């Protein structure tokens, strides 16, 4: 009689313990997938408080080598573009999958290629969850033909753009109608608005590329309270795609949509179901 096969549990490590990291902990506690959060990397001085928050099952560390000693199958970036820049290549070179949500870092085409090459050499996978948008599956399919237009619009309430260049160019509290605060390239959007516009680069990488994707950022005071929105418009030889998403923002972070954390959790849970790591 053959021995029963024991399904492997997915070991993940988080970089960052902000709104996204906290939501992942809560989701996995509720849904109970075969996933263990083995470690969390935080900035120096934050380990003690974070350890108290996450409990004993996950070790909180302050250096990347300490995080990698925990032997994660996937390192999940839930922190910043700087984390992607500083640690992405090292993680991928060690053969560990790397999930990136701060994809604005890849507005730097050289960094993108460097990480792709590191993943190819080691056999690791660079994973880009869809984040707070819908329609990327259609865009990925349509790019197999000829893409004529790809435009992504991020729409958030005026206060969500606080702390960005828009704050110096516009009187945000006085905006009464939807107002375009940025129009340009994905790379510039990701660089100038690193906490708001990472999806601009995700859309570009999934479609027409950094040079052929149009980006608009909009401050809209007419959005329902506690929400943000996005639009994806695609024209190709296979047809047209127009997607509008209205979603709930993180309660403590209006710059980030709840759907961002949900898509990250969904991708990780799909890995468990497919044993794909």
Structural class, from secondary structure content?
Answer: alpha/beta
The CATH class of the largest domain, by name, is: Alpha Beta
CATH architecture of the largest domain: 2-Layer Sandwich
Order of helices and strands: EHEHEHEHEHEHEHEHHEEEEH
Q: What is the count of helical runs?
A: 10
Q: Largest beta sheet: what is the strand line-up? A: 3-2-1-4-5-6
- CA-CA gap between termini: 28 Å
**Assigned CATH superfamily of the largest domain:** Dihydrodipicolinate Reductase, domain 2
Q: Which geometry do the CA atoms define?
A: globular
Q: Count the beta strands.
A: 12
Observed structural traits:
single chain; 277 residues; alpha/beta; Rossmann fold; Dihydrodipicolinate Reductase, domain 2; 2 domains; six-stranded parallel sheet; six-stranded mixed sheet; 10 helices; 12 strands; 35% helix; globular
Would you summarize the structure shown here?
With 277 residues, the protein is α/β, with parallel strands linked by helices. Helices cover 35% and strands 27% of the residues.
Word description of this protein:
- The protein is 35% helix and 27% strand.
- The chain is an alpha/beta fold.
- The chain folds into two domains: 10-128, NAD(P)-binding Rossmann-like Domain (Rossmann fold), CATH 3.40.50; 136-256, Dihydrodipicolinate Reductase, domain 2, CATH 3.30.360.
- The strands form two sheets. It has a six-stranded parallel sheet, with helices on both faces.
- 42% of the residues are buried.
- The model has no long low-confidence stretch (mean pLDDT 95).
